[in-house]
């Protein structure tokens, strides 16, 4: 049995400010085998890693990511909101994370945040960056914008895609096949053992999010999911080491 991928959600975001290099490095220290992060684009065309369209929550700046230059963004503090010891952490560029994990076995889940701000051309730009680092086999591109995922698969059939969705998608493995998607990134309540088995029979993997309670980790591992997205990669590691399904 393949080991379930331990995706650190926005890095080790329970311990460090989300989507910062500190969070990504901490995830590796805590035994994550995957990293999940969010991609947006600055006014001058740089791909950066941040969840919210607005900078307010994590930097205190009221502007949108799409309306700020990369140099201006680099001057903002993205760590102090979490804890004063992280003062000076910045919103990183995608290239920084690609460089960090380029020579590792870490699986990188890049969520394109193109549902509210569409960022035309982002798909091509992300694919170009991933290919430039020779990392097509290490990346899963996910999004709630399923038109974007279909385009990604057309542009780069070799890069895996994952469909993000909440509850209630009927027979999602059949829907995934229409997009040629490889995985279902479902809200964790929308995952049952029979669905995981049905999807696996169609070659579709489940990577549920965001799972922080040990009992729910155990349940999902027993379902046979291929990956779990969590703020606590150390906690998931411990559950797997205690003998949960998917443990090495």
Would you mind describing this structure in some detail?
One of its GO terms (biological process) is lipid metabolic process. Residues 4-240 form the GP-PDE domain. This is Glycerophosphodiester phosphodiesterase. This protein has 248 residues and is an alpha/beta fold. Helix content is 33%, strand content 17%. The chain has a single domain (5-52, 93-241), classed as TIM Barrel (Alpha-Beta Barrel). The chain contains 10 helices and 9 strands. β1, α1 and β2 (34-41) form a beta-alpha-beta unit.
Write a concise keyword list for the protein shown above.
248 residues, alpha/beta, TIM Barrel, nine-stranded mixed sheet, 10 helices, 9 strands, globular
Uncertain residue segments: none
In angstroms, what is the radius of gyration? 17 Å
Strand count, sense and barrel status of the largest sheet are: 9 strands, mixed
The amount of helix comes to 25-40%
Number of helices: 10
Which CATH class is shown? Alpha Beta
The coarse overall form would be globular
GO molecular function, one term: phosphoric diester hydrolase activity
Pfam families: GDPD
Protein name: Glycerophosphodiester phosphodiesterase
Domain GP-PDE: 4-240
């Amino acid at each position: 049995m393949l080991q379930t991928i331990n995706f650190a959600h926005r890095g080790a975001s329970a311990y460090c400010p989300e989507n910062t290099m500190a969070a990504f490095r901490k995830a590796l220290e805590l035994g994550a085998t995957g990293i999940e992060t969010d991609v947006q684009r600055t006014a001058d065309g740089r791909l950066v890693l941040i969840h919210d369209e607005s900078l307010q929550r994590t930097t205190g700046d009221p502007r949108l990511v799409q309306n700020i230059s990369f140099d201006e963004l680099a001057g903002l503090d993205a760590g102090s909101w979490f804890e004063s010891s992280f003062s000076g952490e910045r919103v990183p560029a995608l290239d920084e994370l690609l460089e960090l994990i380029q020579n590792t076995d870490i699986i990188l889940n890049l969520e394109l945040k193109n549902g509210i701000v569409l960022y035309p051309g982002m798909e091509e730009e992300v694919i170009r960056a991933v290919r430039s680092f020779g990392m097509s086999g290490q990346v899963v591109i996910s999004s709630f914008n399923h038109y974007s995922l279909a385009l990604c698969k057309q542009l780069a059939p070799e890069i895996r895609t994952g469909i993000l969705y909440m509850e209630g998608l009927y027979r999602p493995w059949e829907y995934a096949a229409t997009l040629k998607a490889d995985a279902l990134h479902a809200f964790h309540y929308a995952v049952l053992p029979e669905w995981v088995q049905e999807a696996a029979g169609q070659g579709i993997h489940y990577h549920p999010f965001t799972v922080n309670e040990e009992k729910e980790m155990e349940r999902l591992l027993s379902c046979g999911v291929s990956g779990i997205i969590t703020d606590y990669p150390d906690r998931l590691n411990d559950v797997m080491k205690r003998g949960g399904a998917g443990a090495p």
